[in-house]
């Protein structure tokens, strides 16, 4: 059988290829990819098994070689073959808000055909955007704050800022959606925590494409570094995990800060004064910490800014030991919160 209504792919139709893969586009066109069995088999055990089957006389052929009708969308198969033939090292821009949307179809095929090196490459990039350690999280946060500061300065100097930080920072809802679809559990704790900081009113589509009644976009929040989410990509179960995590975070913070507040054992000089440092200052600072956390939607950031907390408490004349003890206690609370994200949001086990 020699079908004649196939459209040859411009780049991925090799004259010396020994098999043709046929796939449909969204517009219902049939695209022919002429490739090499050896290349496909080398990258995928599934393709190796599929293409090793003995050919019978009834096998369909096209352009003199056998062809296989593929169930995958032509657009997705094209991207996969481009990686295998043209761009072996997949280029993914770090912190791109669209990364999960871009790589999801490719990761689905990498999983389906067990192309392990491609799956590992994509997951590595995703985990760089959604880190597993608190120190890596802090690095990304400093980067985001720097982007926001630059944008604000541009506006202050009457320069247009339409390159909003939100466009160049990871977007959580699409990452969570991809995680479920492609089995990438390690990115979930950071993604859910980030999502817990965002107002439901800060919707990606509404914020980036909607206009005010006067036809001028309201970008004030974006200029100041506001983050948005593609809320429509979350499932009902995701929303339950999100709301559960928010409540558990509040409870955990109250318990952990209160524990540090009353940690008289770790207080360098409990119930006595030491030089200009009075023991009541210890409690005063922890009162400020507790109040700041209670009012915050981002406790990791609040606790990170220890200097601001000390200033808010009137810069009491703490001795070195007390100041060091408070900073150490705050670090311990931050680490406990970070390490507990998995449980707070009821997330699946990490890989």
Order of helices and strands: EEEHHEEHHHHHHHHHHHHHH
Number of separate strands: 5
Instruction: Provide mean pLDDT, rounded.
Output: 85
Tell me, briefly, the overall form: elongated
Q: Could you give the distance between the termini?
A: 47 Å
**What's the domain count?**
3
- Radius of gyration using CA atoms only: 27 Å
Residue fraction in strands: 5-15%
Number of helices: 16
Helicity level, as a percent range? Answer: 40-55%
What about the largest sheet?
Answer: 5 strands, mixed
Strand order of the largest sheet: 1-3-2-5-4
Low-pLDDT segments: 211-217
**Global structural class:** alpha/beta
Q: Explain this structure to me?
A:
- This is BTB domain-containing protein.
- InterPro entries: BTB/POZ_dom, SKP1/BTB/POZ_sf.
- The two termini are 47 Å apart.
- The chain is built from 16 helices and five strands.
- It has 351 residues and is an alpha/beta fold.
- It folds into three domains: 86 residues, no CATH class; 109 residues, no CATH class; 97 residues, no CATH class.
